[in-house]
Specification:
Distance between the termini: 23 Å
Strand order of the largest sheet: 2-1-5-6-7-4-3
Structural class: mainly beta
Number of strands: 7
Number of domains: 1
CATH class: Mainly Beta
Shape: globular
Strand content: over 45%
Helix content: under 10%
Radius of gyration: 18 Å
Number of helices: 1
CATH architecture: Beta Barrel
């Protein structure tokens, strides 16, 4: 078993690399389940359904005008389905990569008086995830 540190994680959305601005990525895969229990059973029986997924990216605010998280993510909220690429082990040949179309549902900035300004973006996956390793 090989454990992997999160510091190398890379994430891009709509072609923009947000890795330098992010400090947390959540990538959640889910699936519907359907109750197909029939008479005479002592326990429920389930069948698989459609897959789904959501996620979020969080980080420290950066006021970089053209490439910072605000400039990239604000225009995407509810606007279009774009490509997200998630690389939990960083960039490199043979390393895992998940590529999926997403709809950015929200972009939030938080400015506490005694700490750094932070941001969070949440997204809804749309269609299948391509889990082909990086080439």
């Amino acid at each position: 078993m090989a454990f992997v540190h999160g510091k190398g994680t890379a994430v891009t959305i709509d072609g923009d690399d947000l890795s330098a601005y992010a400090n947390s990525v959540t990538f959640t895969r889910t699936a519907d389940t359907h109750d197909v229990t029939t008479f005479g059973k002592n326990s429920k029986v389930y069948a698989p359904g459609l897959k789904d997924g959501t996620g979020s990216i969080e980080g420290i605010y950066d006021s970089t005008a053209m490439s910072g998280p605000s400039a990239v993510l604000r225009p995407l909220v509810g606007a279009a389905v774009v490509t997200l690429i998630y690389r939990p082990e960083g960039t490199g040949t043979g390393k895992p990569e998940a590529e999926v179309d997403v709809l950015v549902n929200s972009f939030e900035e938080s400015a506490p008086v005694a700490d750094m300004v932070t941001w969070t973006a949440e997204f809804q996956m749309s269609d299948d995830i391509d889990d082909t390793p990086q080439s």
